[in-house]
Amino acid sequence: MKQDILRRLTETLKARKQASPESSYVARLFSKGEDAVLKKIGEEATEVILAGKSGDKSQLVHETADLWFHCMVLLAQHGATAEDVLNELARREGLSGIAEKEGRSKD
Questions:
Q1: 3-state secondary structure of 34
Q2: What span, in angstroms and rounded, lies between the C-alpha atoms of 89 and 58?
Q3: What is the pLDDT of residues 48-107, one digit of tens each?
Q4: Residue 19 within a domain
Q5: Is residue 1 part of a domain?
Q6: Helix 25-32, helix 57-77: angle, nearest 10
Q7: Per the structure, how many domains does the chain have?
Q8: Domain that holds residue 51
């Protein structure tokens, strides 16, 4: 089911973290280190911006999926998950963006 995709993807990424670099794209990306992952996120973010400017909805969705995927790779690299991000979004729900940012600066 689509609702479970983040959980399944998180499990796959965790497994790929331990896999041989020859076995998958993600295992190879992990083996190259954090800078390679960060570079890929930068590339994907740029592609999202360009897709947004183009007005092509399907391209925007495609590029956003790529960006989310690579952000999940980075999360996995740091032992974090999509669920951690969802929990943070839930914590922020209903908060003013201004109040939320002010609360962060006090931490």
A1: helix
A2: 25
A3: 999 999 999 999 999 999 999 999 999 999 999 999 999 999 988 887 767 667 776 655
A4: yes
A5: no
A6: 60
A7: 1
A8: 7-105
